[in-house]
Specification:
- The complex is a heterodimer of chains A (about 450) and B (about 230).
- With about 450 residues, chain A is an alpha+beta fold.
- Chain A has three domains: about 5-145; about 205-285, Helix Hairpins (Orthogonal Bundle), CATH 1.10.287; about 295-440, 2-Layer Sandwich (Heat Shock Protein 90).
- Chain A is built from nine helices and twelve strands.
- In chain A, the strands form three sheets. Chain A has a five-stranded antiparallel sheet.
- Chain A starts with a helix and ends with a strand.
- Chain B has about 230 residues and is α/β, with parallel strands linked by helices.
- Chain B has two domains: about 1-125, Response regulator (Rossmann fold, 3-Layer(aba) Sandwich), CATH 3.40.50; about 125-225, Winged helix-like DNA-binding domain superfamily/Winged helix DNA-binding domain (Arc Repressor Mutant, subunit A, Orthogonal Bundle).
- Chain B is built from eight helices and twelve strands.
- In chain B, a hairpin with a 2-residue loop joins strand 8 and strand 9 (about 150).
- In chain B, helix 2 (about 35-40) packs parallel to helix 3 (about 60-70), helix 3 (about 60-70) runs parallel beside helix 4 (about 85-95) and helix 6 crosses helix 8 (about 195-205).
- The chains are: A alpha+beta (about 450), B alpha/beta (about 230).
- The interface between A and B is medium-sized, with 28 and 26 residues.
């Protein structure tokens, strides 16, 4: 019963059976009603014929038959009077067979002129006489056949309409399913641009097609992103790995290796491991897993700790880091991730600006938005290069020789998105302002 | 220490065993959870180093079973991925600490020592309010510290760093442990924040002529002289 075809056939069979049964019941009920009305009438007429008649007085009965036959309201009633041996004594109809006492159904083959179906009552008229009263049960001749024909036409038409409707409904559903199936098949074959055609007139099928297409759009975007990331990863992992390999190859040729040289190789390994840690961290944040750990935190405390943590490093680099003390600032979020984002932003500012630069951390509330800013008065990034700076591994050419794996800002952006926010790079004239706008409930 | 390593990666288990043996520990390796539980029933160990991802019975299940059987020894869990969900699962199952692979043997040793010391404090009935290490006195309750009776003017993180070192005076704390305990960060920043902070703490601890109370051990970490 799971296929559309089987479902349609079952429905049609059930409908046809119901139609035939309904037709037969209607027919039987109306026939029974007519038969009982006719029986009542011939019974009453028979009573009237025999009332106050002496047993065996056939002359009086025949006279009454004659009189009844001429009256308009009883002219359609047939009578026959028979004697004790079943021989016809008189009447206005001729019966070919002897009927039993009581009611009998008559048919065309009973040979009564002008009668195709009727009812007869045979009763004892006294003195061995029998009076048979006959009336038609059909308003017109051959009514039974006509009625069957009418039923056939009526129910047949109904059946045909339902059949056609079901068939076209099935065809439409099958066609829509076919379109979705064809799209799915094309996508399985690798054509991610294929979409389900959307019916122009709207409706449930159009809504479904639109929803399906939106899911496909999202998947295509994610796949595209994944392709980009994996080629970036492949590209950017090659460089440090190639460097490490070259270094090891050089060491392999030496008869002895100094501890210092080994330290350098280990440091290169650590850099690679840090790169992997950053990739995994971004994946963890992007997957939204950390949302479960959101809790109320004081963002001011986190920002102050970040500033205090890096202030000494800034001083050692000949730079100045300022920020805070801030007033308590309660939000819901992940303290680890927000701290990491803050540290990344500050480190980013410190490592991409020369000695003598001042870096300032700000924390403000603008309506429902929490704005965390890190501004510097360094050389800044040209507007055209800012989008590249946000891309994974999107290190600017100017910073290729500096430490870092190029995943700092993308991680900050992933953290911002997890907290319902955005990350923007702006001109601080002079220098760069990196602003994280977060929509966090207090 | 008598240690049990539960790790299905033979190469990694062997290198870890050699490194820990070189640090004078007696090490046994179990390749799966069942063997680990049997070994724990058979022998007494000081601590367990348990891989998170094991065939059949995973690390969290192993530690849960061990705890159900009344094993109270410290369990350090190793993970290849280091996702926070995993970490929470591991700790909830009954592990005491959690580190991400590859972890040097020195880091593992320092963490196990800290876990054993923490067990000792529990038996003594808690961590006293005032900490003493040589001529240094730290009062976490008052948020104040002195050296040779001279009050030290420390910033918040410097104070936290000194208190943590004083709590473990006489043993090494690794950079990763200090980042976790002093900063409460679950990540390692690109900047060597521990080294920078230790440098500024040293400057404030040492008056002219005083000995540096903080000992640095290359590629391990820092220790405050007891």
């Amino acid at each position: 019963m799971s296929s559309l075809r089987a479902l349609t056939l079952f429905f049609l069979a059930a409908f046809a059976a119901a139609a035939v049964l309904a037709g037969y019941l209607t027919y039987a009920a109306s026939r029974a009603a007519v038969v009982s009305a006719v029986d009542r009438r011939i019974g009453e007429v028979g009573d009237a014929m025999l009332s106050a008649v002496a047993p065996g007085d056939s002359r009086t009965i025949l006279r009454r038959i004659d009189a009844f036959s001429r009256r308009r309201d009883t002219g359609d009633i047939g009578f026959e009077l028979e004697d004790a041996r079943g021989r016809r004594v008189g009447g206005n109809v001729v019966l070919e067979r002897t009927l039993p006492l009581g009611f009998t159904t008559l048919r065309r083959r009973d040979g009564i002129v002008g009668l195709s179906a009727g009812r007869a009552q045979s009763r004892d008229a006294g003195g061995g006489l029998r009076l048979i009263t006959i009336a038609e049960t059909e308003p017109i001749d051959g009514y039974r056949a006509t009625r069957v024909r009418l039923y056939l036409i009526g129910f047949g038409t109904l059946l045909a309409v339902v059949l056609a409707g079901t068939a076209s409904f099935g065809w439409i559903v099958r066609r829509r399913i076919g379109e979705v199936r064809a799209t799915a098949a094309a996508i399985i074959d690798g054509d991610l641009t294929r979409r389900v055609p959307v019916p122009a007139r709207g409706g449930a099928f159009a809504d479904q097609a639109v929803a399906f297409n939106r899911a496909l759009d999202r998947i295509a975007a994610l796949v595209e992103q994944l392709r980009g990331v994996s080629s970036d990863v492949a590209h950017d992992l090659r460089t440090p790995l190639a460097r490490l390999r070259a270094r090891l190859a050089r060491l392999a040729e030496r008869p002895t290796v100094s501890g210092e040289e080994l330290e350098a190789v280990l440091a290169a390994c650590d850099e690679l491991l840090a790169l992997f840690a950053a990739i995994l961290r971004i994946a963890e944040v992007s997957a939204g897993e950390r949302r479960a750990g959101f809790r109320p935190i004081d963002l001011a405390g986190l920002a102050e700790q970040a500033c205090e943590t890096l202030a000494a490093a800034a001083t050692e680099r000949g730079q100045r880091l300022s920020g805070g003390p801030f007033t308590p600032f309660m939000v819901r979020g992940d303290p680890q991730l927000l701290s990491q984002a803050l540290l990344n932003l500050i480190e980013n500012a410190l490592y991409h600006t020369p000695a003598g630069t001042s870096v300032t951390v700000t924390l403000e509330r603008e309506g429902a938005t929490t704005v965390l800013g890190v501004r510097d008065d360094g050389p800044g990034i040209p507007a055209a290069a800012r989008a590249l700076a946000l891309r994974r591994f999107g290190q600017l050419e100017t910073s290729r020789h500096r430490p870092g794996h190029g995943l700092g800002l993308p991680l900050v952006e992933a953290v911002a998105r997890l907290h319902g926010g955005t990350l923007t790079l702006a001109d601080a004239a002079p220098g760069l302002a990196v602003v994280m706008a977060l929509r966090m409930e207090a | 220490m008598k240690l049990l390593i539960v790790e299905d990666d033979r190469d990694y288990a062997d290198s870890l065993r050699e490194d820990l043996a070189a640090l004078d520990h007696e090490v046994t390796v179990a390749e799966n959870g069942r063997d680990a539980l049997l070994a724990l029933e058979r022998d007494r160990y000081d601590a367990v180093i348990l891989d998170r991802m094991l065939p059949q019975m995973d690390g969290a299940a192993v530690v849960r079973h061990a705890r159900e059987r009344g094993q109270t020894l410290p369990v350090l869990m190793l993970s290849a991925l280091g996702r926070s969900v995993e970490k929470v699962d591991g700790l909830e199952a009954g592990a005491d600490d959690y580190v991400v692979k590859p972890t040097p043997a020195s880091e593992i040793e320092a963490r196990l020592r800290a876990l054993l010391r923490a067990r000792g404090w529990q038996q003594q009935g808690g961590d006293g309010d005032t900490l003493r290490a040589g001529d240094i006195v730290v009062s976490p309750g008052q948020h104040r510290a002195w050296r040779n009776g001279r009050a030290l003017d420390l910033a918040k993180l410097e104070f936290g760093l000194l208190a943590e070192l004083a709590r473990h005076a006489g043993s090494y704390l690794t950079r990763a442990m200090l980042i976790e305990r002093v900063w409460s960060y679950d990540f390692e920043p690109s900047t060597n924040i521990v080294d920078v902070q230790v440098r500024s703490l040293r400057r404030k601890l040492c008056a002219p002529g005083e000995v540096d109370p903080i000992v640095t051990k290359r590629s391990v970490g820092y220790m405050l002289r007891a």
